[in-house]
Recover the amino acids of this structure.
């Protein structure tokens, strides 16, 4: 913060604590910075009106939304770009899939034939957020680690996906065999050499 020819060299800390009944915002401000600013007023270096402007500037979010959006804003454009790249990669992979190479579709633990009318379409990578605030919900919990955010979003492609017969066999071996039947009752998919609904 640079005021009246003097620079306050540490970061000015400000936190919005909410609104009171009349709608006025309440903020907690760095006391050291406020004292420094009042000293500038007392010394006649700036006017009280200019001090009020400075307080107003530090007590508003750069994003126009909230603290979490301010933290997330710098990486949001890159997250959108990387999501677009991931989406294009997923679409290229989908174009190589045929009924012969990937005869099954797994959807949340239910097995369908690739063409089952009851099955949802394969799911692409998740979106980092249609707006900055939605992106902040990913950014905060993952400590702003963009690689982790993109990896988590890519995991959504595993929820509903086409699989090869070998992938399907591995999935069958790894699942909890005491759980309910994984077979779709509508299309009754069948593994080669295995009886229906086994």
């Amino acid at each position: 913060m640079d005021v009246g020819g003097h620079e306050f060299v540490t970061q000015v800390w400000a936190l919005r604590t909410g609104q009171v009944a009349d709608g006025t915002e309440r903020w907690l401000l760095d006391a050291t910075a406020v004292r420094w600013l009042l000293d500038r007023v007392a010394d006649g270096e700036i006017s009280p009106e200019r001090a009020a402007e400075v307080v107003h500037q530090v007590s508003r979010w750069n994003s126009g939304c909230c603290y979490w959006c301010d933290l997330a804003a710098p990486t949001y454009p890159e997250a959108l770009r990387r999501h677009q790249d991931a989406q294009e990669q997923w679409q290229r992979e989908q174009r190589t899939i045929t009924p012969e190479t990937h005869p099954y579709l797994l959807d949340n633990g239910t097995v369908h034939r690739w063409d089952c009318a009851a099955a949802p379409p394969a799911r692409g990578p998740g979106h980092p957020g249609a707006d900055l605030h939605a992106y902040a919900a990913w950014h905060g919990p993952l400590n702003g680690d963009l690689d982790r955010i993109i990896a988590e979003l890519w995991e959504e492609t595993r929820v509903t996906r086409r699989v090869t017969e070998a992938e399907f066999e591995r999935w069958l071996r790894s699942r909890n065999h005491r759980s309910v039947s994984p077979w779709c009752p509508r299309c009754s998919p069948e593994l080669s050499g295995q009886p229906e609904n086994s």
Summary: The CA atoms of residues 36 and 83 lie 44 Å apart. The chain is about 40% helix and 15% strand.
